[in-house]
Each structure stands twice: as structure tokens, then as C-alpha cells.
Amino acid sequence: MMTRTRLLVTGLLMAISSWTAAPQPAAAGSYVLTSDVRIAMPDGVLLDSDEYVPTEGCPCPTILVQTPYRKSGSAVGEGNTIFPSNGYAMIVVDVRGTGSSEGSWDSFGPKEQQDGATLVQWAASRPYSNGIVGLSGVSYSAINQFLTVEQPGTDAVKAIFPIVPMSDAYRDVTWAGGNTDAGFIPLWLGLVNGLAMIPADDAQSQPQIALNAESQHALDVAEFGGQAVLDATFGGYEMMLPSALVAFPEQAYDGDFYRIRSPIRNIGAVNIPTFIVGGTYDIFQRGEPILFNALKLSRSKKKLLIGPWYHTTAGNGLTADDGSSPVYDTNGTLIPSLNNLQLAWFDHWLKGIDNGIQMFPTVETYYLGAGKWVGDRRYPASHTKYRRWYLSANPGSGSSLYAGSLAPVTDAADTTATLPWIPLNGTCSRSTTQWTAGLVAGWNCENDNSPSEALAATFTTPPFTAPYALSGPINADIWISSNVSDTQIIATISDVDPSGASSQITAGTLVASLRAETPTRCHSTVADCSVYARSQVIEPWHPYTHASQTPLTPDAPTELQIEIFPTSAVIPAGHSLRLTLATGDFPHETLTLSTLVNSAGGIDTIYLGPDHPSSIYVGTPTPAPAS
């Protein structure tokens, strides 16, 4: 069991300064675990749960966790005993169709979302509960926190703490600019379905229920996961399949299937204190700042913490649970462990303890390149100014198919660069680590994209004489043509050190035939609208619908607005900023059948100069934070 360090959190989260005395951890409390408590849903499906109840102090607030990765007994189980050890009852539930629960799984579908409301009411009514509920969990369990509180009948929930959640089911992770996210989705489907094939935890005591659950799980692989992947793989050619095989029409395009499963669509219903934890290299890197900015809450009731993490490493490198190895931001504020941040958040909003967590910085961001945490009031960073860097034919550093430069003004004359179709490029890069959720972290390619850049076009600034910061999303406005009717461009932003090593900061992708852009301006919620800065698009919205898809006219210059996902970074003095344009990012993304047929063997042309001023538009905090 984990130790309680509430004294540490209380002392360090008061707004004034850094901690100067060592904390004295309190002894952890004991609890009783009751396994395999079955909960009936309105349609009769029985969900399996584990209940953790403190031996003293209840009735008490209850933490609810909903997971598809088995409530217990797996390496990704979410029975975090930090809660029952510190005065909270906790219920961990296998969502329908997963783990030991009955029903069919369809990944955040309407019935599962309705289950969330039923589970909240169950949690609030248990004998050990005082009627106050908090939601916790990582990844899937973070996403369904939003989807649950967006349902009616969840008034008992008084605070949530989503760690690495998603905002948009289509744009954040399932698809990459119109290409299939093959780096993560197959791994994830295999994980959920594989864990669901393990016999139910209560198979011996409830054999009939367990057999029913396992038979449903087996059928579900073919009826949901397998069918959805098949439909998506065909892309625009899905219509070629016999109608009996098309379970999910237009699965390769954004539509009701993804919108129903996207928390950002109903974010206006979230009116309770929310602490979001994100990662600079997370698979949901795009969506975490979007969720934060869309919450219509005061600064004391919403927080955003973004660290240098992959999806599976969230929280690594923060202050230890026992207060050792403290980590501070540039203002001297301590950054506690995620366990202690959760305890402080729930202690304040569920128990009414005045511990100062509301004074924690509204935004805490780790700046790549500087290696420092910076507290702020907003995201992108305060005092962010926007500027363009133009792609230039002037020679730049790097060994690539075309090595140009980034310049503050356009070239005086027009010119072009040629880029062949290489869909299997990109393997030796940080992208592979990020989009396998960090599972291959530590390999040589993670910190040097040079091998992938060799088959791409690069554009690099001269070395900076002072630190240069980036904050927020980046737009790549690229003019291209192709000798075929489709192509895909991957735009990667990197930090190039004096040795020539190129470390990926962030990236974005766009299938050219899906380039249609929605000009409507966003206010706070990024859905069906584009984000502007100084009247220029900084975060373009592409509908990604079949109806909006338009083939390229061969050899005709065409403008692409490529959404590059948000980041926080500092390019140190002596380093350079690089944009890489490539036609492949494998295994992160693979082409659908229709995109493959229409782009195979193509030769792309990138246009530079005054008639077609290809550029990137970036946010630059001034002065550079953390430098």
C-alpha cells in the first residue's frame, strides 16, 4: 500500500513559494476488498466490480473507475489502493463486454456511456458511501470520466481527475490526417480483446454468468473489432463490399460513430472541477489542451498538467509519493506525484479540505529542450506571439533528398522540390515510439530522426543565437502537386543540435484528397471550426467526410493546411528548428485501400516562393519560458 503524504501536498500547494522542510508521511489506512460484486444495468447486463472500503471513516466519498483492461489481475489493472488507504471507498468496474462483465463491447458506445450514469448512482447509494463520488483513471478510464459526467443523472460526481484522456475519437488517435493509425489501434484492440478472453474472475462461483460473458466476448471480436477494422481498411472503396458485410458505413471517415464517442462534442455539460494530465508525446497529445480550453470553469476548478511523457509513462519523473526527489517549476512550486495530486484534488472537492490545491498553477507545462516545468494561466503560453517561417530554396543543413532552409521572408523567385512516394518511411523516428504508446522507448531512433529524414525534404533555420520557444499547435501551409490523384504529407517539427542529430518535437499529417477546410472560427470548443491567431489559421479543422473528399488535379499546385499537434518546447541557442516533409510515417500510419490505389507510385512537387509561399505558422512565447 502506498503512503499518505497529504502534509507535503498541503504545504507545497499554497501559492507562495517552495517547500523547505521534509514532510512526515502519515501511516496508510487499512481497507477491505470485496471482489466480483455484480451490478445490474437497466438492460439486464451484469457488470463485474471490485469494492475497496476503508475499515474506518465511512460513510465516505467514493472513487469510481471504469476500465476495459480487467479490474484486477492484469498489468494494466486500475485498482489504485492510494484511495482506500486514504479514506475513500473505491469501485473498479469492467465496462460492458470486457474483463469479467457481460454484454458486447463497442468502445464508448451509447450503452456504455449510459452505464456510467447507472454506476455513479450505484456508487453513491452503497452503504459505505456518503453520496459523494469522484471519477479517476488513466487513458480509457480517463475518457469515460468525461463521457460519464456528460450524461444526465450524474450529479453525485463532484470532481474528476482524467489522466491522458482523448477529446476527438477520429482526429486524436484512430486516424492520422485520413490515414489509419496502425501504430496504436491494432495493439489496443488486441489488448482489450485478449484480456476479455481470459476466464471471468468469478468463473468458479458464478459459472453460468461467466460462460455467458465469455461467449459474448468471443462473438464481439468478429462483430465489432474485426468488422470495424475491415470497413475502415477499404476507405472510400468500402462500397465495394457486399452490404451484408458493412456493419459500420464510412468507417474511414468522421461521422456519427466517432462523434458519439468524442468527449469534446458534449464538453459543455462538464461543470465540475476537472484536473487533466497530458503528455507531450502522448497519443492524445492533440486533445488534452483542447479539452482544457473548452471547459467553462474558473481557473481554480480546472487544471492542465502536461509532462514529457508517452502514453504509458504519464507521471514518470515527478516528485515521489513519499516526497523524496522533489521536482519544482521555475517559480519554485513543487510538482507532486500524480497520486498526491489526485488525493489533494479529491480531498478539496470531495471532502472540503482547504489544502490549497485550487492555488496550484492553472497550467503546468514541461518545456522540451529546456528540461524545465513552467507554471502559467493559459495554454498556449501567456505572451505568445505568432510568426511565419517560409520554406526556402537556400541550402540548409541535413542529409535528405532536398535540404532547404526556413526563412523569415519568402524567396524572391519561385522554385520547387521533388518528393517521391515512400509510404514505409518514418520507422526510425520518435513517431514509432509515440504511436506505440511508448512501448519501444529507449531505442536509438527515438532521439534522432535523421534516418527517416534521408528519404524526405527538410527545411532548417540557421542555428539560433538565443533560445527560441514554441507553444501550442502549429499550422503547416504547404503548396504541393502530384502526378497522381492523391498523396499524403507528414510534417514533422524537430530540434537539430550542433552535431546534426534531429529530435522530433511534434508532427501532423494530411491526406491531400481530404484537404477541405472549415473556415468557421472556434471560440473555445474545437469542433467543426478552425482556430485562428491574428486572423491566420493555427489549428485547421478538416471535416474528413466522404462528401468533402476531392481528388487532386494532377500536376496542379494545391494548398494543404496541415494540423501539427500542440507542443511546448525551447530550441536552445546553437540549435536549429527543422521542418521535415515526408510521404510516409510507418508504422504510425498506413493508407486505406482507396488512398493506396490513388497515390501509389506518385511523385510530389513542393512549391516555394512568392506565388506559392509554403510556410509554417508557429506560436512563440516571448521571452522564451524556461530558458
Structure, explained:
The protein is of the alpha+beta class. It folds into 2 domains: 6-217 and 254-376, 3-Layer(aba) Sandwich (Rossmann fold), CATH 3.40.50.1820; 384-621, Jelly Rolls (Sandwich), CATH 2.60.120.260. Helix content is 20%, strand content 29%. It has helices at residues 6-13, 110-125, 140-149, 170-174, 185-196, 207-234, 256-260, 287-294, 338-351, 430-435, 450-453, 593-599, and strands spanning 31-40, 46-54, 60-67, 89-94, 129-138, 157-163, 175-176, 179-181, 274-279, 302-307, 363-367, 372-376, 384-392, 402-407, 415-420, 457-460, 468-482, 488-496, 502-511, 531-533, 536-539, 558-571, 576-582, 589-590, 603-608, 615-621. Strands 13, 14, 15, 16, 17, 18, 19, 22, 23, 25 and 26 form an 11-stranded mixed sheet that branches. The chain has a 10-stranded mixed sheet with strand order 1-2-4-3-5-6-9-10-11-12, sandwiched between helices. A hairpin with a 2-residue loop joins strand 7 (175-176) and strand 8. The chain is globular and about 75 Å long. It starts with 5 loop residues before the first helix and ends in a 6-residue tail after the last strand.
